[in-house]
Structure formats: C-alpha cells, structure tokens
Amino acid sequence: MSKRRESLLRALTTRHGRKNSGYCLVEGLRCVNELIALRPDLIEFCVLREGVCADRLPGEKTTVLEARKFDSLAATVNSQGILAIAKQPGYVPLDAPRKDPYALVLDRIADPGNFGTIIRTARAVGLKEIWTVKGGVDPFGDKALRSASSAQFAVSIRLAGSLEEMVGALKNLGVTRFFRTEPAEGHSVFREPELFQESAIVLGNEANGAGPLPGALPLNIPMPGSAESLNVAQAATVILFESVRRMEKSI
Amino acid sequence: MSKRRESLLRALTTRHGRKNSGYCLVEGLRCVNELIALRPDLIEFCVLREGVCADRLPGEKTTVLEARKFDSLAATVNSQGILAIAKQPGYVPLDAPRKDPYALVLDRIADPGNFGTIIRTARAVGLKEIWTVKGGVDPFGDKALRSASSAQFAVSIRLAGSLEEMVGALKNLGVTRFFRTEPAEGHSVFREPELFQESAIVLGNEANGAGPLPGALPLNIPMPGSAESLNVAQAATVILFESVRRMEKSI
C-alpha cells in the first residue's frame, strides 16, 4: 500500500482528517457490504487482512495486507479485518427541493451511536433525508457509520449553520408546522393528526435538548412508566415508526 | 478508603468480579442519582472526586478522594467523578407470578448498550420485568447500567438457562402465545390484535437472532425503506411503544 494511502487511512480516524480529505473510513463486513451495494462509485480503495474472505470487494481496488501490518493500521478500530475508504457523500444544499413529506431534524446530537442509529432507522422507514444542525456529531465519522450500518450512503444529509437557519430553509420549502419533543407535555405522537404533513420534527441534543424554536408545537411521547426520559434514538424510533403505522391499516 | 473497598472497586469492572462479589459499579451523576432515588438500600458506598458536587449522596457512605487517586481507580470508566457501589438487585425466580400483561424476552442480547437501552425503554413504558436467557450480556455490567440509566434497579430481571426452559416457565405462568420477530414476514406489530395479551415477545441476539421456538408466531415490523433490518433496541422500542399506543386513544 502506498504511503499516501497509509497516511490517509490514519488521518480518517480524526474529524479534522475527514474534513480535510473529504473521505471517510468504513469498517467491518456488514458496513463495507452496504457501501458496495449502495455507492460503489464512492469507493477509493479497500483493505483486507490476510485470511479474511470478502468476495464482493472490488478486486482491482483491494489491497491485502499481512495481519501485523493491517492491525498496525486499524489499531484503534473494530474492523473485523476489512476496511474501505470512500468519498464522503457530502451534504445536500439547504435550498434543494424536499424529498419527504416531513423533515426529521437532529439539533446537535452528540453521540455517534445515537446519530448512526437514527440514520439507520430513518432508512428503514423509507425517509430520504435527515436535517442536521452544526455543532453535533460528524455524520461521516467511523462510529456514526458503524452504528448506521452505512446508511449515510442511502439517506441524504443536510446541514444548517444554526437551528434558526434551518427553520428559515424549511419554511422556504413549504414546511408549515414545527414540532419539538418535550418530556412531559404536548401533543401526543400517537394522536396529533398533522404530525407528518408538511412538518418538521426536531429532536435535540442528549444533554440540553433542542434549541429555542419560537412557535413550535410541543410533541410528547407518552410514557406510562416511571422514567424521566427516553434515549434520543428511541424517541426518534417511536416517531419514525408512528409514520409507518399510519400508512398501514392499523388496528 | 480501605484496601478492601479499593480491590472491590477494581474487581467490579470484570464480569467475574461482579459475579463473585454480588456488587455492581454505577457511574456518572445521572445513573447514581437514579440509584439513590430507586434503591438507596442497596448502596454499599459512594466515591467522589474532590471538587465534584453531588449533594444527594448519602454523606455517611461517601468517600471523597483526591483527583489523582480517584482517577487511578476509575481509570477504565467514564465516571464524571462520581461512583457508587451497590448490591446487585439479583434475579426474580422463574416461577414467581408474572407482573406484566405480556413478557418481553431477550434471547442472548450481546451488546451492553442495546441491552441497557431496552431496559431503560421498558421502564419508560411501565413494564415491571424483563426475561433473559443465559449467554447474553451481564445485566449488571457497568456499560449496561450506564445505557439503562440504572433502570435495572426499577425493572426486575429473570434469567433462564435456555430459551426452552424460559418457554416452559412462561407456559406454566399462563402465557399462551409466543411471538418471535422475523425480518420480512409475519404478523404486523401494528395489526396483530393479541400481541400483548398473555403473550411473550422474543427478541434475539444481534448476529444470530432468537433461538428456535417451535410453534411461535412470526412478528414483523413493517419497513417501507430499503434497510434489511433494525437494531434490536429499535425493534424493542417499536414493540414496547405499540403497547402504549394501544392504551391511548389513538387516531
């Protein structure tokens, strides 16, 4: 493997390295297979640990390394002996036409596991894009990609500089209702009739919640138990699958 | 702090140490506060890093350590300068009367983050207990406790030696329907009328799914998108909140 590729690979474990290079690091059999299925055009090169079988990898782009060498490169990561370096799919411009009936907005989610899980779940329900606000996790970081099973290559991401900028962009694109999850009050996710109609649903940072949203409707996930709150990825899951349920003929 | 407490604390980061001692390690302000609220009787002692404020801690059981000393003890963990050592609440016997209208069964969930998230979500929907099968994650490990926000002290856990043994115990307690999540077919979680009536819902291991369950009904979570599967904690969340929705007057 060339020195250039080696240093690129090392750089991709840092946010700075990802930003400067425009590439990202995809690790593990499942995530690499999803990348191959979704966006083979973005693959720059793949690296295999000797003895690991992965017959779907593009042969002409794949380097096999001896175990010791592979491990020295992949030392900080949980790779299962398989890595791919891919161009980041990049962000969709804020003013591009919307692709979904409602917008899921993630306001500075900080945990890459939560962020990745939400992208993966959004993909499962058929959402085409996710709206994010600057100051959260790097969507193309290795942990976010792993938790998402590479769903970042199937679901587009938009990035606004602030929640205010995002609200403006959404309004320009015809969004008329803004919902903001609140712990103990508001419109029930199971009963609000217009939840998914030309709306934006904003989920906030794990520690601090979403930023101020003047005029937003409070949205509540009913919790009969004694817990104070849900993990943000679980809250997103309840909301996303409520949209699926409404499409189904439910009981 | 006594040598005995020091070595107990170190031992609790391993499964073996937790099993032998019967204690567990609760870290971070939120998790320790939940422990204090839920089961103060189980607290053996607390440890604070000097300068960290935690005014709800039981003073007579709390040791304040200088920063360097605290960090040497908490080196492997993400503690925010606050730890509690508590007796494990232990398992409920398999033949004790059931406390919930349906049983959520986790068949060898392997990831402590997933396991903890499911317990936390079960608590949020008001479930009193969780059924587990030997061979999965330690419910009282530090990562599982952290992901659960200490919900292990609010939700009881049962442990069977095998899925077969668990099915026998559930049948003895009046459970007549067994559902097993399947990726692409089966009764829809949103439409199956008897999903939560004297039933058991079995979620399987992340890599291998649930073990064989003769006679079980396949349960499907509809996924209009292109994803192959959901993370197991997201699947559990959809199921658990469907039970909440049915209690609400939904639209």
Tell me briefly what this model is.
The structure is a homodimer of 251-residue chains. The first copy, chain A, is of the alpha/beta class and 251 residues long. Helix content of chain A is 31%, strand content 23%.
Q: Specify the oligomeric state.
A: homodimer
Termini separation of chain A comes to: 58 Å
Please give the largest β-sheet of chain A. Answer: 8 strands, parallel
Low-confidence stretches of chain A: none
Order of helices and strands of chain A: HHEHEEHEEEHEHEHEEEEH
Strand order of the largest sheet of chain A: 5-8-7-6-11-9-12-10
Give me the number of helical elements of chain A: 8
Backbone shape of chain A: elongated
The level of helicity of chain A is: 25-40%
The overall strand count of chain A is: 12
Find the biggest chain interface: A-B, 43 and 43 residues
**Structural class by SSE content of chain A:** alpha/beta
Mean pLDDT of chain A: 93
Beta-strand residue percentage of chain A:
15-25%
CA radius of gyration of chain A:
20 Å
Describe what you observe in this structure:
- Chain A is 31% helix and 23% strand.
- Chain A has 251 residues and is an alpha/beta fold.
- Chain A contains eight helices and twelve strands.
- An eight-stranded parallel β-sheet of chain A has the order 5-8-7-6-11-9-12-10, with helices on both faces.
- Chain A has helices at residues 3-11, 15-21, 29-38, 67-73, 112-124, 142-147, 163-172, 232-247, and strands at 23-27, 43-49, 62-65, 82-87, 91-92, 102-107, 129-133, 156-160, 177-181, 187-188, 199-204, 217-220.
- In chain A, strand 6 (102-107), helix 5 and strand 7 (129-133) form a beta-alpha-beta unit.
- In chain A, helix 5 (112-124) runs parallel beside helix 8 (232-247).
- The mean pLDDT of chain A is 93.
- Chains A and B meet through helix 5 and helix 8 of A and helix 5 and helix 8 of B.
